């Protein structure tokens, strides 16, 4: 979960990093390798993008929900 603008920036950088990895893998990996690796990167990108959107669509004055770890 993203709690502040610094974490937002980090998530955005990670998304870009993984997207660039996929861009390179599309060309350099074999079709078999690509299908095995790309799904993991895609899932991570989708997860991070959802967190970014959650953060960006929450008003700055709203409290951040935290999940309690038991």
Rg from Cα: 15 Å
Number of helices: 2
Report the strand count: 0
> Alpha-carbon distance between the termini?
17 Å
Main β-sheet: number of strands, strand sense, barrel status? none
| Fraction in beta strands | under 5%
Could you estimate the helical fraction of the residues in percent? over 70%
Mean pLDDT: 92
Low-confidence stretches: none
Order of helices and strands: HH
The secondary structure category is: mainly alpha
Please give the domain count: 1
Large-scale geometry: elongated
What would you say this structure looks like, in words?
The chain has 70 residues and is mostly helical. The chain is built from two helices and no strands. The protein is 71% helix and 0% strand. The protein starts with a helix and ends in a 14-residue tail after the last helix.
How do you describe this structure in short?
With 70 residues, this protein is an all-alpha fold. The protein has helices at residues 5-28, 31-56.
Keywords for this structure?
70 residues, mainly alpha, 0% strand, elongated
Secondary-structure map:
Blueprint: H1 5-28, H2 31-56
Helix pairs in contact: 1-2
